[in-house]
Amino acid sequence: MSTSLAELGEAELLRRLATFAPPGQLDDDTACLAPDPRSLIVNTDVLVDGVHFSDNTTSADDAGWRAVAANLSDLAASGVTSVDGITVGLVAPGHTSWNWVEGVYSGISSALNQFGGVLLGGDCSAGANRLLAITALGRLGPLRLLRSDAKPGDVVVTSGAHGLSRLGLALLQREVDPATAGLNQVLQERAIQQHRRPVPRFDALHSLLQCKPSGLPWRAGGTDSSDGLIAAVQGLCRASGCGAVLQQSAIPRPNGWPQGEQWDRWCLSGGEDFELVLALPPAWARAWQSSMPGSYCLGRMTAEPDRIIWNDGSTLTLNSGYDHFQTMT
User: Fold this and answer.
1) Domain-embedded: residue 268
2) Both 211 and 135 in a single domain?
3) Are residues 165 and 201 both part of a single domain?
């Protein structure tokens, strides 16, 4: 039987957590980052039990991985090319088992080992509900991606298919019958993997930086699709004062994706796919699509503020994205 945090005590808990950081990193209440001429980009996300993860759908390892991936996705979508590390705020009831905490930090370590950065520090506290508050820090590359930097005439592109995480959650919750829905095994496995172990798209960012046409300035609009694809496009439009015309034929459905209104809704607004969504000058968009397998061209930015329509003139439904104040997990 696993020892609870109450039985373990704070001092022993901190001693054990220190093994997930570089030697001596957690000895003090502060962390020191080495001087660096590049701009420092900072992001914080909070993941709450019952909203972003649960024992029914997410192992402790996967909860730790997802916590890191969500933050690093925001860094990638801002133009960060090098991750310094993260801090972790852990809140949990005293009866929480050490095995669960150890699993979370093992997942955190696995994600950091794959994408870069170290555990810089953090804090622990007792609380009524399990919660992970992650702050990630990284260094900016040559392109600062901002939602407000989209311009009319830019091409809207995304780094991959959407809807997989929402489908993975539905499969884990037995919300859909794979046989009735006609889901093949490959799609099911891919969806569950996307939900449990999302990947921040640093690869897509590096491809974007490498393929920029020489005559263009370092300017592009960017975000990620953590709250859904349409929410990402809407964010670009609101921040930049633009609108968008999207191609219905270009909805980024995964291979084997079923037809139907629900399936299109999950693809467009399911959330937690963590793909880059960019507004690029046409020449850069063409170059990026040529160098980035699996990317999609969705449409164009327009000069009509906040007006997002399909290419046939019909209006999109914009209020069905992921809502952090609704329990989904």
Assistant:
1) yes
2) no
3) yes
CA–CA gap between residue 295 and residue 277 (Å, rounded): 10
**CA 270/CA 273 separation, integer angstroms:** 8
Supply the range of the domain harboring residue 66: 5-140
Same domain, 186 and 286: yes
Extract the runs of DSSP E, i.e. beta strands, from 76-170.
80-92, 118-126, 131-140, 155-158
Is residue 248 located within the same domain as residue 102? no
Indicate whether 183 and 303 sit together in one domain.
Answer: yes
Threshold 0.90, pTM exceeds: yes
Which structure tokens are listed for 199? 């990947």
CB burial of 288-299 (b: ≥16 within 10 Å; e: otherwise) equals bbeebeebbbbb
Give backbone dihedrals phi and psi of 155, rounded to 5 degrees, phi first.
Answer: -90, 130
* pLDDT tens string 318-327: 654 455 445 4
pLDDT tens figures, 93-123: 999 999 999 999 999 999 999 999 999 999 9
